[in-house]
Amino acid sequence: MSLKPTYKVIFLNQGQVFEVFARAIYQSEMYGFIEVEEFVFGERSQVLVDPGEEKLKNEFAGVKRSYIPIHSIVRIDEVEKEGAARVLEAKGNNSTVTPFPYGGMGPGDDS
Q1: DSSP secondary structure code for residue 70 in this structure
Q2: Domain span at residue 13?
C-alpha cells in the first residue's frame, strides 16, 4: 500500500455525477466546503482512452486545489488504489441527492 492514502470522491456538479480520485482531502477553512488536492488520473500509456476520464483530466488540468460544496458531496471512500475517473448523468431516483430542508424564512420575514 502506498504511503499516502487515495480517496474516491463522488460529487454532483451541474446535473452530472463526478467520480474522481485524490491523495488529499480535508475540511476547508471556507465554511461549507471540502478541499480536494492532488488529483490522480490513469496512465496515458493505455491504448484505450476513456472519454469520461479525459473530460475530467482536461477539466482539472492545472487545478492545484478544488473546493467542493459539502451539500454536493455524495460519498468519500478511502481506497487501496485509484481507478478510472468518470462522469455520469444524474438521472433516476437513485442518483439524485435531496437537499436538506429549508424553512424559507429569511431576515426580516414577519410571516
Answers
A1: G
A2: 6-89
Sign of the dihedral defined by the CA atoms of residues 36, 37, 43, 47, in that order = positive
What distance in Å separates the CA atoms of residue 111 and residue 109, rounded to the nearest whole number? 6
Identify the residue with better confidence: 21 or 43.
21
Report the CATH number at residue 54: 2.30.30
Place of cell 482531502: 25
The grid coordinates of residue 31 equal: 465554511
Is 46 inside a domain boundary? yes
Q: Tell me, yes or no, whether 50 lies in a domain.
A: yes
The set of residues, in sequence order, having a beta carbon less than 8 Å from that of 90 and lying 6+ positions away, is: 12, 15, 16, 17, 96
Question: 48 vs 95, which has greater pLDDT?
Answer: 48
The C-alpha atoms of residue 68 and residue 95 are separated, in whole angstroms, by 18
Q: What is the pTM of this model?
A: 0.69
CB 72 within 8 A of CB 36: no
Counting the structural domains of the chain, the total is 1
Give domain status of residue 60, yes or no: yes
